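U., I forgot to send this yesterday:
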Amino acid sequence: MTTRILHVVTNVDQYDAPSHPTGLWLSELTHAYHVFEEKGYEQTIVSPKGGKSPLEPRSLKWPNFDKTAKAWKSSDERMALLADTAKPEDIDPTEFDAIYFTGGHAVMWDFPDSEALQAITRGIWENGGVVSSVCHGYVGLLNTRLSDGTLLVDGRKVTGFSWREEVVARVDKLVPYDAEAEMKRRGALYEKAKLPFVPYVVADGRLVTGQNPQSAKATANKVAEVLSD
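Result:
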């Protein structure tokens, strides 16, 4: 049977003010999509509301705008996938082997409290699938509870965009909360690389997380490795 991956992207296009645009960090999707595509996996893109997923402007500039991101942006067919993403209610979690939460600061607003995404995540996890995220995508796991009421991340090793990286990126005054601290408050065993913005991936069984945009490819490869096991 074909392995099926569900990518989760944002619908949010700004921080608290329109003067600070944000959205999907494109390479976090394209790097993983490319890895999974080469392996012949079937892929679907969903967002909290369905429909359009806007792009983070900074992800379209050097050095973030790399080969895979450029190829995606120049393809009408690929861009159409982000213009009309699936709605959570149209997704049957039993049909997917893994879920992959992409990032971009935008997800801090629409991922954590989406009960529909939480239900999909819980379904995939409890069906023996892989739950994964990269960068800010890990906020999509903050409030996901399993059927027994426990938090998915409680007592499990995870990584994601660190507070130090928020400061270095000069957005610490714009973000609505400290994702690293919130993850720790939920009992997660948070880890990070010694240096900011270097690839770093943590796998705790079927939970696979990457720290930053530079970790997307490695995260996808680890997901594929866990799936093959």
